Amino acid sequence: MHNPPRILIVDDNETNRDILATRLATHGYELTQAADGEEALMAAREQLPDLILLDVMMPKLDGFEVCRRLKADASLPFTPIILVTAKADSKDIVMGLEAGADEYLTKPIDQLALVARVKSVLRLKQLHDQVRAQAADLAVWNRTLEHRVAQQLSEIERISRLKRFLSPAVAELILSSGDDKVLESHRRAVTVVFCDLRGFTPFAETAEPEEVMAVLREYHASLGELIHKYEGTVERFAGDGVMILFNDPLQCADPNQRAVQMAIEMRARMNGLAEKWRKYGHELGFGVGVAHGYATLGCIGFEGRFDYSAIGTVVNLAARLCADAKDGQILVDSKVQAAIEESTGTEPAGELTLKGFHRPVRAFNVCGLRPDAA
Questions:
Q1: Is a pLDDT exceeding 90 seen at residue 213?
Q2: What is the DSSP code (8-state) at residue 162?
Q3: Sign (positive or negative) of CA dihedral 56, 62, 66, 69
Q4: Is the predicted pLDDT of residue 172 greater than 80, yes or no?
Q5: Would you state the pLDDT for residue 140?
Q6: What was the pLDDT predicted at 91?
Q7: Which residues have C-beta within 8 Å of that of residue 131, sequence separation ≥ 6?
Q8: CA-to-CA distance for 308 and 233, rounded, in angstroms?
Q9: How far apart (Å, rounded) are the C-alpha atoms in residues 337 and 35?
Q10: CA distance 226 to 219
């Protein structure tokens, strides 16, 4: 709608146009005129009036034809048309309405009826424009919503992917920063923790599959809670074997201390679970190996399936220490022992001959946190 509303008066008789203009001018409308049907079509397309007062009997194109053409023109906005004519026969009225007219006034024009019809039709135009504007706003909002939903789904997918191997806190931190370049291949000093169940292979060979799965669910749930607590990075779950990284992909000030404290809490929890499992005839123990050193880290896999992995001697060392650990033992290398000796009690485990290592490896058994450090 224009402000004030714009009305196009179409009549081949100048006197009739002036009469209509005079009667409407006092109401503050913007008034324009056209002298025949063709001029009316041009004026409607150029001026985009809010209402057309259209005579029927005109040369070149009569009002009915003008009305049909205007209503059929999809490029024009909705424009109400009031036919103003001396043709008062009911057939003419029906023809006018079928041509697309919104109102029909017969001459001579009654002043009050004219003003009332104009106001009524302009209200219709205003409501129509409001609905169209709201529909346009809704369409924009829907497109925006679709874009936001797509973004959120992408974000959820990224979170799910990251949370497969990162603690929730670390995953959220990476996502909130909008930078997952930390997951690209790089080299860094890390602390690696390997842990698994003692006696799991014979247990899995003799127990029912449902029993094995029940044990693994309890086992993984207990370990997972502690991995999240200490903000470790899960490199893999492989049956009863679990590998956890510290100091990557986000660095921390005390990776060795975190790793060993986590291992101590894991041992305590596994002692409780092992006691429970023994009641069902399952003889299972728990061992841990921890090593510190440089590794190459990053995502490996293929499209649709990526894992975060570490490659290096430190990984092999932690795995071999874990394999050598007895039930209840946490074996650490000399680097880890040096980093935790002030807070954690350890005892020498001797020079171990480990598969894949040409020289014996000096190892230490973790006893527990020192009273003053607990």
A1: yes
A2: H
A3: positive
A4: no
A5: 86
A6: 87
A7: none
A8: 9
A9: 102
A10: 11
- Which two tokens mark 214? 């029940």
Scanning 48-110, the segments in alpha helix (DSSP H) are 63-72, 90-98
Count, residues in the chain: 374
Q: What is the dihedral of CA 89, 94, 95, 97, to 10 degrees?
A: 130
**The two three-digit tokens of residue 9, written as one number:** 């008066």
Q: Give the position of tokens 């369409």.
A: 139
**Distance, CA of 204 to CA of 213 (rounded, Å):** 9
At CB < 8 A and 24+ separation, what contacts does 307-311 make? 307/164, 307/165, 307/235, 307/236, 308/165, 308/166, 308/183, 308/233, 308/235, 308/249, 309/235, 309/236, 310/190, 310/192, 310/235, 310/243, 310/245, 310/248
What local confidence, expressed as pLDDT, does residue 79 receive?
92
**200, 203, 210 from 206: Cα distances, Å:** 10, 5, 12
pLDDT interval class at 93 (50, 70, 90): confident
Query: What residues are paired with 236 via a beta bridge?
Result: 243
Closest to 18 measured CA to CA, from 35, 1, 42: 35
Band of pLDDT at residue 374, cut at 50, 70 and 90:
low
pLDDT for the residue numbered 330: 97
